[in-house]
């Protein structure tokens, strides 16, 4: 005999698993902002009934990963413009403190790694600029440029020796879906400016100039935040979504 409530518990567990799977696909960039999710297609793709899929989408709507639109399906959303700006402001403060501390103790090995990251970005720049905007946006999260960019920031946080800072920064990064990696880099001259900012931060670290390193890192993250929020504002307007509340217009 099946214990009372176990069937419901199993269904809820499946819905949770499906919600996690869909959310992961959003964060990985496999489901970009504006993507439509159909219950029937998801159920067939995942080999489950529509019930758990429907429940999974409801769960994702509660945490504002998707919005459910009657007779149309579920549409993938991302952070609001304000949430995105706040995340970069937090990173400006946290990474600014981290690079200030790193300036006093960063090793020659870490400095060499940062130099390699910058060189990889410099080499990748012509290729990125040769791509059509749409192709560049879709592939940016997996590009050597972005990989080097992420590593550059991680090396500095690691070199700071500050406990828990890595977890805090990575938590902010995980909240930022991969398909939005292009947002801070979009627009004419922004990649070039980003590279120059990294070069300035490295130069300050090599001089052990903690104050300048912090100032440049804070400005770097604020610039990224301004570029990202501008890009997201435009994207949400294109989708007809309120950029502050993420409710459909």
TrEMBL record:
Keyword Transcription regulation: yes
UniProt xrefs under PROSITE patterns: HTH_GNTR (PS50949)
Keywords: DNA-binding, Transcription, Transcription regulation
InterPro entries named among the record's database cross-references: GntR_C (IPR011711), TF_FadR/GntR_C (IPR008920), Tscrpt_reg_HTH_GntR (IPR000524), WH-like_DNA-bd_sf (IPR036388), WH_DNA-bd_sf (IPR036390)
UniProt domain HTH gntR-type: residue ranges: 12-79
Top-level taxon of origin: Bacteria
Molecular-function annotations in GO: DNA binding; DNA-binding transcription factor activity
The protein, known as: GntR family transcriptional regulator
Annotated organism of origin: Amycolatopsis sulphurea
